[in-house]
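User: My collaborator sent over this chain with a note saying "see what the structure looks like." That's all I know about it. Can you take a look?
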Amino acid sequence: MLFLGLVLHTAQYYMVMQLFESKYDDPSASYSMDFLLLSINTFRMHEFFLISGFFTAMLYEKYGRDELLRRRMKRLLLPFLLFWPTLGTVETLWNKMWLTYRDHGYWGLHQSHIDSFPRYLMDTEHYWFLYYLILYVLVIWLLLPMLNKFPESMKTAYKNLMGFFLKTLLGHICLGLVLALFGWFHDAGRVSGDLSFLPNLASLSFYFMFVVTGWSLYGLTGYLDTYKKYGGRYLLAALLFFFLALVSFSLQGPTDSEQYMMFHALLAGFNGLAIVFFVIGFIGVAQQHFNKPSPKIRYLSDSAYWVYILHLPVITGLAQLLHDWNAIAEIKFLTVLLTSTAVCLLTYDLLVRNSWLGALLNGQRMPRLLVASK
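Assistant: Without extra context I'll predict from the sequence alone. Here is the result:
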């Protein structure tokens, strides 16, 4: 899921829809980039938080409450404190210099862009998912003593409820409609991550649902086998729901139009269903095709954390340097994506994998692939 961040953040430079600030103004644009970004955004972070909840429950069962907190803070808080003020600042400065060049014809920092720089200090940038996970782990750590005191009857009732939501087709549909209630209050029909250090409660609550769902899934047996059996069918259904959501979005019109309420309700509903069916479908496909040990998959999995941490400044710099290249959007997209992926993987192997940083991100130092470790 983290590698999809490279695809998504590269595609955003070549979209037709104006969803982002003025720095995304490449003269090449294609609706294929819009489709790519919107489809990935439908499931990527939802899947990520669900998987995070699953492995958080695994750590709790193995190590206990306090050791869970220590290990999670080491892997989440320390990288956030290390890279948000460094790589995040580099990216922001580069963007300001690029906007100065674009708007004023020289490389540097124009006063108008310097004045807006303090706003960065209240923005978690693309590290927002780390910030959310830090908050979620703290909440779980605080709640565990109270939750463990609940009577067995309540625990059994909760387990049965989650079993209904997670195993049955009707439960999956109901879960999608629950997500639709959150999406109803957003014009896009779904909730997005809030990059602020003071994120809105709706966004925090929405993604916490997926952490809790992943935690609950860990305690249920046989469910992953069910997903494995029907994963492909769920992905096909998810694509249908996503297409219907796009149609609804295109037809809803402005908020004061007569048709808005009807098509916005359909948009939120189809988005909720698409999220659930994408998440379950990808889990099932992964169980079916990637459930056996593979050195290549393991290497990519180990590198994913570093790749996500580094990728956005690299993509930003490449996309802006290629701004005036007279090529179609798809060619520029592939050039930036493949080059940035190569840079991130190369720096991971040479600088991170067998270093103290690799131990911080991956839990231990590991031998390099391209250069023999000394």
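A starting point for your reply to your collaborator: The chain has a mean pLDDT of 87.
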